[in-house]
Design goal:
The structure holds four protein chains of four kinds.
Chain A lengths: L2 H20 L5 E6 L11 H10 L3 E7 L5 H14 L3 E6 L2 H14 L7 E5 L1 H5 L6 H20 L6 E5 L4 E4 L3 H12 L4 E5 L21 H13 L4 E5 L1 E9 L2 E8 L13 H5 L4 E2 L8 E2 L2 E2 L11 E2 L9 H5 L12 E7 L1 E4 L4 E2 L18 E3 H8 L20 E8 L15 H15 L4 E6 L9 H11 L2 E4 L4 E4 L6 E7 L4 E7 L1 E6 L1 E2 L4 H8 L26 E3 L9 H21 L1 E5 L3 E3 L9 H5 L5 E3 L5 E3 L10 H4 L5 E3 L4 H11 L8
Parallel strand pairs in A: 1-2, 1-3, 3-4, 6-7, 6-16, 7-8, 16-27, 18-25, 19-20, 19-25, 20-21
Antiparallel strand pairs in A: 5-28, 9-10, 10-15, 11-12, 13-14, 17-26, 22-23, 23-24, 29-32, 30-31
Chain B lengths: L2 H6 L30 H5 L1 H5 L4 H10 L18 H5 L6 H15 L4 H13 L7 H9 L9 H6 L4 H9 L9 H4 L1
Chain C lengths: L5 E4 L4 H5 L1 H13 L3 E4 L9 H7 L1 H18 L2 E4 L2 H16 L1 H15 L9 E3 H15 L4 E2 L2 E6 L8 H4 L9 H8 L2 E3 L15 H4 L1 H18 L3 E4 L2 H17 L8 E3 H8 L4 H4 L15 E2 L8
Helix pairs in contact in C: 2-13, 3-4, 4-5, 4-6, 7-9, 11-12
Classes of the chains: A alpha/beta, B mainly alpha, C alpha/beta, D alpha/beta.
């Protein structure tokens, strides 16, 4: 008796008691189907049925022309009613095809549908061994025998209806978050919308015009921002971040931490405090292209309109407190935390623009190279609310540039920097900006240095053609370096025009880098709080790129927009809409139906090693403080991967326990049936 | 294909290329992933003044165009490694050009000056042999007249290493006669 | 293991056979800093990468490995003063340590030409890197006897920093190792256009076609001439040779009249540490013969030179 | 004439049962497609459906070999497409370790194998089965079957 047998024996002993209490002595019904000639043509079904009779615990063994037909199914039901059969085996086609019909049939007669075992003797046996009839019959016998062994110890698995809290959390209030929040609210679901910054709208409020139709972004985002701001069902929290997330699909407990605004809500946003505030720092919202005070509002149409004080730069001179006509400024506000329950979470944390300082030959951000900017900074200069009132000026001397050179693929399609992907967006917005600049200053020569112009989709090729017509020069070559002449201070972009094979040195008064889209800065901690998997590029990983691009790796958590990967605005809105719809489904229905095919932990055997937690991809196993694991049944995907890693076989997936599998393996390996 | 067409044929066919030839060129270099972006030629300082176009050399290797081996431009590279640093696909063009030079020497196109340098190495152990004027300076500076390198031991008669250099190292194909080369 | 504070001094070709002054000043500096310098008997050419690696990569590695074995027998790291030698030896050393297959091939041929066997127990160091990082500006401060105040055009060369993934010393786009070091000597590094480009001599180009190498060098000299430095500071005898013969060639053929003295880092440091001007060897060089360093003596306890 | 016929008789009847664990998603899907397309393969192949090949540990494999199976194989989804994220990678890793263990014990390491397949491709599954039988027959030629304790 090897050590393994003893171990299995003890487990069996434990299981036998629990199993037998629940389902009295097993009485198995075996039904072999002819499936016309599909099975009977190769396998001698009568012989198989005869053999099944001889197996232990088998009380009824029949073979019939078409088991899946009405009379066939009725035959199964009768056997349960009359002979008290409590486990059924049907040897016919595959589980995906008719497994469900027999499962539903035995459920109608009061038997738990998991007590049925489908044996595939058609696709796995008769159809593929048509030349070896004798061997096919032997194989069919063994498969049926395995089915019988397997069904002997099947336990009940009931499907639970778990009620869901009818509320949703949306993280991030960019265009994706606003869209998702709005769609959810329209379905009557209360939404908690939290935003890390002090104002909502995300990157879109910074843009000057959006491609391909060059309409201004305010008109596509302001209905959403206003709609969200005063929607009865949406609670908006700005300056707020997720602190803790517990629970699983359908019932999450969320704790958020709201950083203080130091300005009460009765602020009429008259702007007096900012006007008199002595402190001036570069404004992050304006990408550093203009200054803001220590107490500020990001941009005139910001929502919420209340001002916010930046504690780090504030010198506490109290002028804002004294000057405020409604005494809204209050330095004593403390960070507060809020807890609430939600059914689903939509993550719409957006993206960050790649910081090109890492590419040293372009000297971005080094002193003396102020005229090397990124596309977002150019958008800020062009936009109506900019400091330069939408004039394009050189940051170094404020003059209008004579030569503007745009460089594509900065930080993307670059293995050295570790971003091998192409965002598919930089070409579109570079061409848009190039055209706008060329139209504003016809005698400035605008050049785009590209590797491949990628403008797929409707009316983007027209955008490309219109830029060419207006006179934007396109040079195919990736610039290697931006050189500054120390004496004249003039920038030159060194590039090879690969189409005419001539190395060029382009004079450039202003260089605009089309920087890639990279995962946002706070993605690490957010990802670990949500227990979701991330792709190798750092974005959150979708469940399946085609079948389910908006569900994350964990049930109940959905991804909207660029947090899942680089997208342009129209794709983001479509993606956010689908995320909202999927997130709303369990909430509108009110419950989640989940088959409780989940692991059971035998705490006598468990040594608290925590290995099961490491292997569980949907993070459904939580370890409490003294190391005892517990299974979060709703989050479990019943994949069974925790079983082999458990050193003491303490965790066993119901109906896939080691001994249940062992019985089936024994039969299939030719070791003969085992009896009770 | 009559030979008249053969002469004026401007287009190339698959037979003119032999991509297998460069199969194991610098296995580490990812030359087959080159997207022809031109960063290498743009950062090439020698290419600004000469006909050296690194990108088109890499292109010819990827296509398997063997004319690149006879092309004198590959000898204009100063191995400054700027293209090696700046290639977004990590193709390491400097190593590729050095490898091409290896193939080229096997075919025999070596410049006479380089051949002379190999000669110096083989009989003095140095690419730049010493001369009397420098010997005088060394003495004035208080250093011994001959540095303790191979050349000094050759003067003192035991130069077995140098003989081995002669025998085993840097075998160069013989100099073809003039007319064959043209 | 490798002995502390000792270096096997790899001479190479250009230093001993053209600019012995650099050899003299390097020995002087190292001994003053407390390092013991061993002679590498039977060392040969590194061999020069431009010419020999272009002919036969395997034989290039074998010749280089032979020099490494000599240093391994002395059980000391190699010290070089030339970018070419440093580039070759460091790359071969690192490559053979990582690539088993080539190591066997090379060892096989090494046995053939003299019974050497590459083990990979030493590292290859460059004088600029030893001074810049190991000794550092703080280490040399109190050894300075003469503090200059001059403006120098620093030329890094190519093989010292690049390829960065193999040399792993410092970024090749904005290096500061030499600038920071010579600041202590009272020398201010003056920026000029395209400072980090190549002097035009490498890759066997100087031998292959002298005039191409001179056109590249001409551009370099034009940029240097714009900022009018006091002297040109280099860390490689081959660049040293190129700057010397280049200025002479441009003066003769392209009617310019450059006369910038070309000084190697070792010469500069040796002079500042008290070696008298005569040993620095400017008088043997073609350019800037009569350049007087200037700079005042630092009146500290006057130790004998 | 499918390749398995030309195998000589003596090896042929030595192969009685080959246990193949197939995952519920793509593994058994490809066997299904092969069945629907009537692709013949060696009748000794016995298929067991499991939730994911990541669920199959050394215990199940040793059980199968203990009880008379001539070879064991796992067919999971292809890399990156596992419905439970890394099930197929875990089982690939386990089977690699078991192969090493077999070799150390002196058995041929061809008794355990891991394959991946896609639900839509029947030929991949049949190709895997033929590969299992072929490796098994070479192993038996060299060292005999696992039963007679080679």
């Amino acid at each position: 008796m090897t050590v393994k047998e003893e171990k299995i024996k003890d487990v069996e002993k434990v299981d036998k008691d629990t199993a037998s209490e629940k389902s009295e002595e097993p009485r198995i019904g075996v039904f072999v189907c002819h499936c016309g000639h599909n099975i009977a043509g190769t396998v001698d079904v009568a012989e198989v049925a005869e053999y099944a009779k001889t197996l232990p615990n088998v009380v009824k063994a029949e073979h019939y022309m078409f088991m899946c037909s009405k009379p066939g199914v009725q035959m199964v039901k009768d056997s349960i009613k009359e002979l008290g059969v409590n486990r059924t085996v049907v040897a016919s086609c595959s589980k995906n095809q008719h497994g469900k019909t027999f499962a539903r049939a035995i459920e109608e007669v009061g038997l738990n549908k998991h007590r049925h075992q489908q044996v595939n003797v058609r696709e796995y046996c008769s159809w593929v061994h048509q030349k070896e009839k004798n061997k096919a019959t032997q194989k069919a016998k063994q498969l049926v025998e395995a089915g019988v062994n397997r069904t002997r110890k099947l336990e009940d698995v009931e499907t639970q209806k778990i009620s869901t809290t009818k509320a949703a959390l949306v993280i991030g209030a960019g265009i994706a978050g606003l869209r998702a929040a709005n769609d959810l609210a329209e379905l009557g679901i209360p939404v908690y919308l939290i935003e890390k910054e002090s104002t909502i709208g995300g990157h879109m409020t910074r843009l000057n015009k959006t491609f391909p139709t060059l309409e201004c972004p305010q008109c596509s985002i302001s209905p959403l921002t206003n709609g969200v701001a005063n929607h009865p069902l949406i609670e908006l929290y700005t300056n707020a971040q997720v602190k803790e997330i517990e629970g699983s699909m359908g019932n999450f407990e969320i704790e958020i931490e709201i950083k203080p605004r130091y300005v009460k809500d009765n602020c009429t946003s008259c702007g007096e405090c900012a006007a008199h505030c002595p402190v001036e720092v570069p404004s992050e919202w304006d990408m550093g292209m203009s200054m803001r005070n220590a107490i500020y509002k990001a941009y005139p149409q910001a929502i919420p309109a209340t001002y916010v004080r930046d504690k780090k730069n504030c010198i506490e001179c109290n002028t804002c407190i004294n000057i405020c006509p409604v005494q809204a400024v209050d330095f004593s506000m403390q960070p507060e935390t809020k807890k609430f329950k939600v059914g689903s979470i939509v993550v719409a944390a957006g993206y960050d623009e790649y910081d090109p300082t890492e590419i040293e030959p372009y000297h971005y951000g080094q002193d003396g190279y102020e005229d090397v900017i990124t596309q977002l900074k150019l958008e800020r200069m062009l936009s109506p609310t900019s400091l330069t009132n939408s004039e394009v000026l050189r940051p170094s001397d404020g003059k209008i540039p004579k030569n503007v050179v745009m460089i594509q693929c900065v930080g993307s399609r670059n293995d050295q920097v570790g971003n091998p992907y192409c965002t598919g967006v930089c070409c579109k917005y570079a061409i848009k900006n190039a055209r706008i600049v060329k139209e504003m200053y016809p005698d400035t020569n605008v050049t785009i240095c590209y590797i491949d112009i990628r403008t797929p989709g409707l009316n983007f090729e027209e955008l490309y053609k219109s830029a060419q017509e207006v006179g934007v020069r396109f040079i195919r070559g990736r610039p290697s370096e931006i050189v500054k002449d120390p004496i004249s201070g003039e920038l030159r972009v060194i590039v090879e025009d690969t189409l005419s094979q001539t190395p060029l040195q382009l004079k450039a008064d202003l260089v605009v880098l089309s920087a890639a889209m990279v995962p946002p800065e706070g993605i690490g901690p957010l990802g670990s709080k949500l227990h979701v998997l991330r792709s190798k590029e750092g974005f959150l990983k979708e469940f399946h790129i085609k079948m389910n691009p908006t569900l994350s790796s964990k049930g109940g958590i959905f991804l909207a927009g660029t947090i899942q990967g680089p997208k342009d605005i129209s794709e983001t809105v479509a993606h956010a809409g689908s995320a909202a719809a999927l997130a709303a489904a369990p909430l509108v229905k009110g419950y989640i139906e989940k088959e409780m095919l989940v692991p059971a932990i035998d705490y006598e055997l468990c040594v608290n090693c925590g290995l099961c937690k490491t292997v569980c991809a949907p993070a459904a196993i939580d370890i409490d403080e003294n190391g005892v694991p517990s299974v979060n049944e709703v989050a479990c995907k019943s994949c069974g991967m925790c079983m082999p890693v458990c050193p003491t076989a303490a965790i066993q997936l119901i109906n896939f326990r080691d001994d249940q599998l062992l019985d089936e393996i024994i039969a299939v390996s030719g070791g003969g049936a085992i009896c009770e | 294909m009559s030979d008249v067409e053969e002469q004026h044929r401007e287009y190339k066919m698959d037979e003119d290329f032999d991509p297998k030839f460069f199969k194991d060129i610098e296995r580490k270099s990812n030359i087959w992933k080159c997207i022809q972006c031109g960063s290498c030629t743009a950062s090439c300082e020698s290419g600004r003044w000469t006909a050296l176009k690194t990108r088109s050399i890499v292109r010819k290797v990827v296509l398997g165009d063997l004319s690149v081996l006879k092309d004198p431009d590959i000898w204009l590279c100063t191995t400054c490694y700027q293209c090696y640093e700046r290639c977004p696909r990590d193709v390491r063009p400097t190593d590729v050009i050095m490898e091409l030079r290896n193939y080229a020497t096997k075919l025999g196109n070596i410049s006479p000056n380089h051949r002379a340098v190999v000669g110096y190495l083989k009989n003095t152990g140095h690419a730049v042999p010493i001369n009397d004027e420098v010997k005088k300076r060394r003495v004035e500076l208080g250093l011994e007249e001959l540095p303790p390198t191979l050349y000094k031991f050759k003067q003192e008669g035991e130069d077995k290493d140098l003989k081995n250099f002669e025998k085993h190292m840097f075998p160069l194909p013989p100099v073809e006669e003039e007319e064959e080369k043209k | 293991m490798v002995k502390e504070k000792t270096f096997a001094f790899f001479l190479g070709c250009l230093m001993p056979n053209r600019y012995p002054a650099i050899e003299k000043s390097t020995k002087f500096v190292m001994e003053k800093l407390g390092y013991s310098i061993l002679d590498m008997e039977r060392a040969s050419c590194c061999p020069a990468p431009g010419v020999f690696r272009s002919f036969n990569k395997l034989d290039w590695m074998v010749a280089g490995a032979r020099n490494l074995c000599i240093a391994e027998q002395l059980d000391a790291d190699i010290l070089t003063v030339c970018n070419g030698c440093f580039g070759t030896l460091q790359e071969i050393n690192k490559h053979l340590k990582e690539n088993e297959e080539h190591k066997l091939l090379v060892n096989e041929k090494l046995k053939l030409i003299g019974g050497y066997e590459f083990k990979g127990t030493i590292n290859v160091r460059h004088v600029a890197e030893v001074l810049g990082y190991e000794v550092g500006p703080w280490g040399i401060e109190d050894m300075i006897v003469r503090k200059l105040n001059a403006r120098a055009a620093v030329h890094y060369g190519c093989h010292f920093l690049k390829p960065t993934r193999i040399r792993e010393i410092e970024s090749s786009e904005s290096p500061t190792i030499v600038e920071e070091f010579i600041e202590v000597l009272g020398v201010e590094s003056v920026r000029f256009k395209e400072q980090l480009t190549c002097c035009g001599a490498g890759g066997g180009l100087k031998a292959y076609s002298g005039d191409t190498s001179m056109t590249i060098f001409g551009e370099k000299m034009k940029n240097i001439d714009e900022v009018k430095p006091d002297f040109i500071l280099d860390i490689c005898p081959f660049c040293h040779l190129q700057f010397e013969t280049g200025q002479d060639y441009l003066n003769k053929n392209k009617n310019c009249n450059y006369d910038y003295p070309v000084i190697h880092l070792s010469q500069l440091v040796a002079y500042c540490m008290g070696m008298d001007q005569e040993f620095v060897g400017l008088q043997y060089q073609m350019m800037g013969r009569d350049y007087i360093f200037g700079g005042e003596e630092i009146k500290k306890e006057e130790e004998a030179i | 004439m499918s390749e398995c016929e030309i195998m000589d008789e003596e090896i042929q009847e030595k192969i009685q049962n080959v246990v193949v664990f197939m995952c519920n998603e793509c593994g058994q899907g490809s066997a299904n497609t092969a069945g629907v397309a009537r692709m013949a393969y060696e009748p000794a192949i016995r298929i067991i459906r499991v939730q994911c090949t990541g669920q199959i540990g050394p215990i199940q494999i040793m059980d199968a070999l203990d009880n008379g199976a001539d070879a064991v194989a796992c067919v999971g989804c292809c890399i990156g497409a596992c419905h439970f994220f890394n099930g197929n990678l875990l089982s690939m890793h386990r089977i690699k370790l078991m192969k090493k263990l077999f070799k150390e014990l002196g058995y041929s390491d061809q008794f355990v194998n891991q394959y991946t397949s896609r639900a839509a491709e029947g030929e991949t599954a049949v190709g895997d089965f033929e590969d299992i039988v072929e490796r098994l027959s070479t192993a038996i030629k060299e060292k005999g079957t696992i039963k007679d304790g080679c």
